[in-house]
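USER:
I wish I could look at a protein chain and see how it folds. I am handing you a single protein, as its sequence and its fold in token form. As I understand it, each token names a local backbone shape. I hope you can help me see how the letters and the tokens relate. The protein I mean follows directly.
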Amino acid sequence: MKTVKEAYLAVVDGPDPRVWEPWGVNFEALSKLAEQADLNLPSVPYQEMEEFRIKILRESKADLLKRENWTCVVGAIVEAGVLSQGTRDTFALICTKLKFKSDAWFRRYGFYILVVLPSAPSREQLEFWHELRVMASYHLGAERIKMVTSVLAADQFTFSVPLINRTIIFEHELESIGIGRRAS
């Protein structure tokens, strides 16, 4: 039996992602759909990694901030529809917690940020995308930031999470043949 390995994306959206409705869609249902998507991996050489899955931490902000184990967190889903200092502070705190974890998986597989925007974002919302990238680069190292992308629709979100999953599997495969992050 294969071991399921789970990497996590933290959610920064306000008080509780279970009631968040980006694009008028329930985030909890949308994130479960994205987690269960077929990864469409070729059987060779990835067959041993088919059970490696991205999971989304649908925890309230209070529970997220109390979290003790950050090792397997490899990214964040950040709401940019409503910009607030609280969102910035929570994202910075996540980056700071990861920065001091020597065994954190983002060091091996990279760090990924999905910036959730309304379908017609304002200039300020688009600039927030850049601000998050700079903040993550400062705390975690620019070389470790693998993806910062704007997500403007539900179908784009359900494509992006499996894409991150496949990218991490690819990073793991590179590492296992001696050319990944650990090898350098």
